[in-house]
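User: Hey, my collaborator sent me this sequence without any context and asked if I could get a structure. I don't really work with proteins. Can you help?
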Amino acid sequence: MTNGAAVVEEAMDRAAQVLAEAGEVALACHINPDPDALGSMLGLAGHLASQGKKVVCSWGNQPLNHPRWLSVMAGAEFLVEPKAFPHTPQVMVSLDTASPDRLGGLAGNAERATNSIVIDHHRTNPGFGTIVILDPSASSTCELVFRLIERIGGELPDGAAACLYAGLLTDTGRFQYEATTPETLRAAAELRTHPFDHARMGQMLFEDNSLSYLRVLAVALERVTHVPQAGLAWTYLTQADLEQASVQPGEADDLIDVVRTAREADVTCLIKQQRDGRFKVSLRSKGASDVGSAALAFGGGGHRLAAGYTSRVGVEETIQRLIAALEAGRETRPTGNGSAAGG
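Assistant: No problem. I've predicted the 3D structure and written it out in C-alpha cell form, which is a compact way to encode the shape of the chain:
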C-alpha cells in the first residue's frame, strides 16, 4: 500500500468512527450540484438515516432548485434550504466539494463545525476540514462514499444504492473514462444488486433534454471555433442566448459533451455567461492536455481531464488567456514515453 493510499484508509477509519458515534449529521455538496455531488450526499444520508441518525442535507444555492433528474434518486425528504441548515453542526460532511468556496453559502457552516469531514476526488482540493478523505484516483465521490459505507457497516438501503449508482454512472461517462477501475466496476456491480429502475435512471440522466435546450445547442455548435496550435475547440453562450431560448444556465452544462466529440481537438471549452455577468469556463481533455492545471492557474480546479473556473473578463480575453495557458503547457510537456496517455 502506498503512503497516499494509507492516508486515505486512515481518514476512512476516522470518518467511519465519527459518523458511527454521531446522533445528528449535516451533509452538504457543492453549489449547482451534479449527480455525483447529490448522489454521494443523499446516498450517505440515506445510509446514516437507516442507522438511526438524524440527517439533514443541502447545498449553497438560494433558492434550492431541484434538478429534474433528482426524481430518480431517493432522499429528497432530507433536503432543506440553506437557511435551515444547522448553523454550527457537531458533525458536517462536505461531499464532492473541491474547495470551501464551492460550498457557497454553507462555507461558514463548515468552518464552524466541530467535526468537518470532507469526501472528495478532485486532486486540486486543498484539503480543508478536520478529516479529509481525498482520493484523486477514485472515479467519483460516490465510489468513496461506497467504500466508507462498507467501513461503517450495516445494510445499504435500496434508495441509497440508487443514489450512489447515479454518481458512478455519470462521473465515469457511463464507465468509459480513464478513472474507471476494477474497484469502480465492483462497486457498480454491488449497487446494481439493489432493486431500482436502472433504465429509467439512464433516461433521466442522459436523454431528458427540452426542445429549448436543443435550440441553444444549435447556437453553440454554430459558433464552434477550432484553434489547432492549442489543440482546442471552443464555443460560448451569452445570457441573451439562454434567455432567448428560455434555458437556465445549469441546463446547458452537458452541452460540452457534444462539442468534445470533435476529433480535431484534444481540449474542448464551453464559455457560458452567468446571471451576474461572469463566465463559467468548462474544460475537457481527451488525454494529451492537463486541463486541471490550466483551470488551477485561473483560480479554478478539477481533474486532469475535466475542470473549470470562473472568468471575470469577456469572451475574447478569456479564450486568449486560455489558449496561452494551453500552449505553454504543450511546450513544457515531456515528449516520447513521458507524454500523457490518451483517455
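In plain terms: The chain has two domains: 3-206, 211-338. You can pass these C-alpha cells on to your collaborator as they are.
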